[in-house]
Write a structure and sequence with these properties.
heterodimer; A: 81 residues; alpha+beta; Mth169, Chain: A; 3-stranded antiparallel beta sheet; 2 helices; B: 223 residues; alpha/beta; Rossmann fold; 9-stranded mixed beta sheet; two-stranded antiparallel ribbon; 11 strands; 23% helix; globular
């Protein structure tokens, strides 16, 4: 079995109102000096067998086409075999 | 004039969109997300709602629905397509229109009667409006903040592809107050506010929304 981990974050130039709201809450809860918060999401995808070749290439393509939107988001992907 | 109205799981406004088509004088044709048959319609409306629960990103899963595999090439070939709210999000996720719609700047869901200026009147969906005409139609969204990089925004402005702009209040933080855009050819239009909710005096703040639906009928008569 392999586990694929895809992290998706808004591009730095895209305003992240959710991150900003969290930043405000952290300050209100006493954490001083928070200069920025960005909120993203993580997918963990378990697949049978060894992920390689065409299947790995397809996984990578779908991380860019389905799991993230290249207009506003960047993703990183890693595979634990 | 047969106008398709697509229903995805979670679509809310297909009923009102079909009714708006009727009131404008067209014949609505129900299209199902799981069916790639466009039934020979002359135009298509992608209505508002929360298709596939808005899971992942709004419109992201709908993009891969069977109906879209037929609709995307048809739209690229010139079929008039209007995406309203969630439909606009689907058009952006499908790359039929540039940019993306993100969480409202305020983080709040906004529901209000919204004043707009119609800035492009040579699209298939706006030709019955006068250039610069101001209209009031409902707006209701949580993820209506239109974003694109500066180059794309300049391109949209330079090519006159901003179809409608928010007046008085920018309800969601959209870049440059953009409420709606089109492709270069003007057959594909995405609009965040809801013209289909403003076609009858009894239920809408105006009947200004009707112009979008009569425009596409005008387009077909001319063709």
């Amino acid at each position: 079995m392999a586990r694929v981990i895809v992290d998706v974050m808004l591009k730095p130039e895209i305003l992240d109102p959710q991150g900003r709201a969290v930043q405000g809450a952290l300050g209100r809860l006493g954490l001083a000096g928070v200069t920025d918060v960005r909120q993203g999401k993580q997918f963990t995808i378990d697949v049978d067998g060894v992920l390689e070749g065409d299947r790995l290439a397809l996984m990578e393509r779908l991380a860019g086409e389905l799991l993230s939107n290249p207009v506003i988001e960047d993703f990183t992907m890693r595979v634990e075999q | 004039m047969r106008i398709g109205v697509v229903t995805f799981p979670g679509t809310l406004d297909d009923g009102d969109a079909a009714r708006a088509v009727c009131i404008a004088g067209g014949e609505p044709v129900a299209l199902w997300h799981g069916d790639d048959d466009l039934k020979g319609v002359d135009a298509v409306v992608l209505p508002g709602g929360f298709s596939y629960g808005d899971y992942l990103r709004c419109g992201a899963i709908s993009r891969f629905a069977p109906v879209m595999t037929s609709l995307v090439p048809a739209a690229q070939g010139g079929l008039p397509v209007l995406g309203i709210c969630n439909g606009f999000q689907v058009l952006c996720e499908s790359h039929l229109l540039p940019g993306a719609l993100t969480r409202n700047g305020s983080l709040h869901f906004v529901c209000r009667d919204q004043r707009l200026r119609i800035e492009r009147t040579d699209t298939d969906w706006t030709r019955d409006f006068a250039p610069g005409q101001e209209i009031v139609i409902p707006l209701k969204n949580g993820e209506g903040c239109f974003v694109a990089d500066e180059r794309t925004l300049d391109e949209l402005e330079g090519e006159g592809r901003v179809v409608a702009r928010y007046l008085e209040v920018n309800p969601n933080g959209s870049r440059r107050d953009i409420a709606g855009i089109s492709n270069a050819r003007g057959n594909i239009v995405g609009l965040m506010p809801h013209p289909e909710h403003a076609v009858e005096a009894l239920t809408g703040p105006s009947t200004d929304g009707l112009g979008f639906f009569t425009s596409v009928l005008t387009t077909m008569v001319r063709a």
